[in-house]
Design a protein that fits this description.
With about 100 residues, the chain is an alpha+beta fold. The protein is built from 4 helices and 4 strands; from the N terminus they run αβαββαβα. The chain is about 35% helix and about 15% strand. It binds iron/sulfur cluster (SF4) (2 copies).
C-alpha cells in the first residue's frame, strides 16, 4: 500500500513538473552584471528570450536546458537564489554559432 502511494505521489509530481516546465523561467533574472550582449537570446534553442530594455526577458516557453545561464559570459543570469555561488559550465567544443545552427539559423 505504501509503495502504491509512493508511485502515485511520484507520478503526480512528475506530471506537475512537466505541466509547469515552460513557466519555470519565471525564476530567471539577469542581475546588474548583464552587459546586454544578447548571447542568452542567441543560444536559447526555443527562442524563449528577447532583449527588452537592454535586459533578457523570458517568454515562458522554456525547456529548462539552462543554456542561457551557462553561456552568459559574465554569469549574470541567476535562477532564484540557487545559482549565485554555483559555477558555470559550457562545453568548450560548442560555439554560439552551433547553438544557433540547431534552431535552423
Ligand atoms: S548573456 Fe548575460 S550579459 Fe549577455 S544579455 Fe544575456 S544576461 Fe546579459
Ligand atoms: S533554460 Fe534553455 S530553453 Fe529555457 S530560456 Fe534558457 S536557453 Fe531557453
Amino acid at each position: 500500500m505504501y509503495l502504491a502511494f509512493r508511485i502515485f505521489k511520484f507520478t503526480c509530481e512528475t506530471i506537475g513538473f512537466i505541466k509547469n516546465l515552460h513557466g519555470s523561467d519565471k525564476a530567471f533574472i539577469a542581475n546588474e552584471k548583464c552587459t546586454s550582449c544578447g548571447i542568452c537570446a542567441r543560444v536559447c534553442p526555443v527562442q524563449n528570450i528577447i532583449i527588452e530594455n537592454e535586459k533578457p526577458s523570458w517568454k515562458h516557453r522554456c525547456e529548462l536546458c539552462l543554456a542561457c545561464l551557462h553561456f552568459c559570459p559574465v554569469a549574470a543570469i541567476q535562477m532564484g537564489s540557487k545559482t549565485a555561488k554555483r559555477g558555470r559550465y559550457k562545453n568548450p567544443s560548442v560555439t554560439i554559432a552551433d547553438m544557433k545552427k540547431q534552431r535552423g539559423e
